[in-house]
Amino acid sequence: MKYIEPHAHMVSRTTDDYEKLALAGCAAICEPAFWAGFDRTSPAGFYDYYRQLTDYEPKRAAKFGIPHFCWLCINPKEAEDAGFAREVMQIIPEFLDKPTVLGIGEIGLNKNTRSELAIFEEHVQLALDRDLPILIHTPHLEDKRKGTRLILDSLASFSKLNRGKVIIDHVEEHTIGAVLDAGYWAGMTLYPESKCTPNRAIDMIECYANEQLWMNSACDWGVSDPLAVVKCGLEMRKRHYSNDFIESIVFENPKRFLSQSDRFRI
Ligand SMILES: [Zn+2]
Question: What's the whole-model pTM score?
Fold first, then answer.
């Protein structure tokens, strides 16, 4: 099945996973900067992480014939200390001109705190200054609806923001409507234990306009499935969707959003 994995944390995955993705038909992988499974103790830890995302990981993916792109930021989980976060943010511009960097992400909220929100807004401004797309994480453990509301309210204060260049990820049934109604893209994350199952994702596709939706596995250091997107495509086949429609969701939609960066070429 031809598809794009628009959100995967490959630094946590093995080469076996790259092989599985290649065999399944994955045409491109995009990796947002996020928590690496542990808190980094210095900005230098992020410097090396950005090197890994922009240099090492594209080479690893290329061995399996898959183009690898990334998004850069300091994630909300490690942005609670705003002073630390700003030190890390000073490193980011030096990496933004690397050839596989698509935009700013995944920024957002983790515990919906004031400090997280301040750093979120500074990232949005950085993206606006550079005319870059934005990928946004919504909270899982705290109140997702409240976090999404805070994010939408904050974004609304940026009058120059092109909402078609912003994707709000990890939506669920109680947040997807507000995201799409406001003109943003919405991402659905397929996780084995939490977030969204394939059948719930397909139900949401049926209930909402599907032109600004994508699906991802967000596979990372925890219990997650790098093949979740193709498995959902298979589930759509079982529900008698045409191959063209499935491809529009798993390939064409992410391609359209990601192609807003000139660097996304497949
Ligand atoms: Zn993620």
Answer: 0.96
